[in-house]
Amino acid sequence: MFLIKLLFKNAFRHKLRTALTILGIAIAILAFGLLRTVVSAWYSGVEASSASRLVTRNAISLVFMLPSSYRDKIRQIEGVKTVSWGNWFGGIYIDEKNFFPNFAVDPKTYLELYPEYLLSPDEKTAFLHNRKGCVVGRLTARKYGWKRGDSVTLKGTIFPGNWDFVINGIYHGRDKGTDESQFFFNWEYLNESMKKTSPLRAEQIGFFILGIKNPDQAAEVAAAIDRSFKNSISETITETEKAFQMGFVSMTEAIVIAVQLVSFVVIVIIMAVAANTMAMSARERTSEYVVFKTLGFGSYHLAGLIFGESFVITLTGGALGILATFPAAKAFGDAMSTFLPVFFVSPRTVYLDVLASVIVATSAAIIPAVRVIHIGIAEGLRKVA
Amino acid sequence: MPVPPPIVSIRDVSKSYRRGSQTLPVLQNIALDIAEGTFLALMGPSGSGKTTLLNLIAGIDKADSGSITIGGIDIMTLSETALAAWRSTSVGFIFQFYNLIPVLNARENVELPLLLTGLSRKERREHAEMALQVVNLADRMDHFPSELSGGQQQRVAIARAVVTDPLMLMADEPTGDLDRTSAKDILDLICRLNAELGKTIIMVTHDPRAAERAHIIRNLDKGVLNNVSD
Description:
Chain A is of the alpha+beta class. Helices cover about 55% and strands about 15% of the residues of chain A. Chain A has helices at about 1-10, 15-40, 45-50, 70-75, 105-115, 120-130, 140-145, 185-195, 220-230, 240-250, 255-285, 285-295, 300-335, 345-375, 375-385, and strands at about 55-60, 65, 80-90, 100-105, 115-120, 135, 150-155, 160-175, 185, 205, 205-210, 235-240.
């Protein structure tokens, strides 16, 4: 208790210097936490994907469609439990800047495969029975002030024209990592319209989503599907939903790596600042450490004092930084909800913050502690005199 | 009646320091016996090696050769850890510049060496308060060093030196930073510790008035102990 009291007294002996160091550490941990959250948000689609879902698309590119007749063939493949399908719609709400992901999907099978999108039974029934109905994620609905029963018009880019929808439901994510920004509507509405306006584009599907019986057999099922369409007019690529999502992330991997690098650089910089503070403190107190040695205190006592002081300063800054990360992430997430719809500080990020603080505290104390341990008492006393 | 063995026995002790490529001899073939309860003053000009000799006896520096036996223990053979443990129980040190910890009050400064003992928090406090009473500072125990005069700070340092009831007290110019009145008070206190508590005291000083208070004065010149005056 006595020595812990001494640690705190030592840590706050130079109040301004310690306050500035704590502030620096708090800002660094805040920046580190935010950047790590950005990285997590980037991978949120990958994290939220299910091991029991596969995605089948055109082997050439996602831009090319697959015939709807594939649906029945896929259904017959051993291991496939549910087949759903959809098209990226790419509609715009009033202005291009109002971006949110929107898809035409088969309502029944899609909701079956995505139990993480929570709708009330009423909303679900309405969506299943209304060809012009749509379901919107909570974030997007909140952003545009939409509520159930509202009419919404999207301007088609891939499928030209103005498309009118009625909001049948607003879904909530079952898990924290569930994307709540999506907008999906009945694929039949798209298909019937295409039959009338562009018959060649009717009965075309952008992707199939498959529920499989056994996630352990995902590779075999995927291979069987692709094999059955080999040498056809539209060959397929089937992969796990995780791999499919990862394909999108890998397109922007350089940005993610840069963000990760910056987050580590921030920690290295603050490590140098904390080390400088500890080095100055230890140098100023050389005479006191020599007195401790003269009184019979051993190396581990002195190391304990220096490491303890470093931990008091760094963990105070780290705790403040972690506390500040939550409101900062909320504000950042709200501002960036269009691009990063799933943005929250995960427990993993908090653990990394704590780990970074511990690494900073330890590394900052090593050199001063080694110096103090190795200084001879007589030599130290001569310096005092 | 048999003569009791000396508490300090120094034989053929030499010590030199290296300055770059040069080796500077500081102490040469020192031999010295100090009986228990003696108050010995070490005098000599600056650079004569008196502080070095004090440091060797206190176990805070190592001699190049010879032997230093204190209370029957050859401290030259002890490891750093064993030496630190020995210092904590056997030696009380009084510095010229007091060397108190500025963020601790007088009682906490005195309590510091007791952290290495098995005493409880309550016992430590009691011992520290008793030591401060011995040096007549019971009324200042909650004061921080910056709130005390030089003489009072040195008394706290003396209380810290005696609180573990060590075999010997080592004082390096204990009055060197004090005015004449405070210096006299400190010397009175040191003499009282010697007379009433029977502490063996080795004091390094430049001040002949301080040295006169000792039982024995030994002069060091260029690293050689060269005369005795009782």
